[in-house]
Amino acid sequence: MKVAIPSSETGGLEDYVELHFGKAPTYTIYDTETETVEIIKNTSVHMGGKGRPPELLKDAGVDIVLCSGVGQKIVDLLDKNGIEIFVGADETVQEAITSWKAGKLYKPKTINFEKEHGLGMTKNQL
Question: Is this structure's pTM higher than 0.85?
Answer without folding.
Answer: no
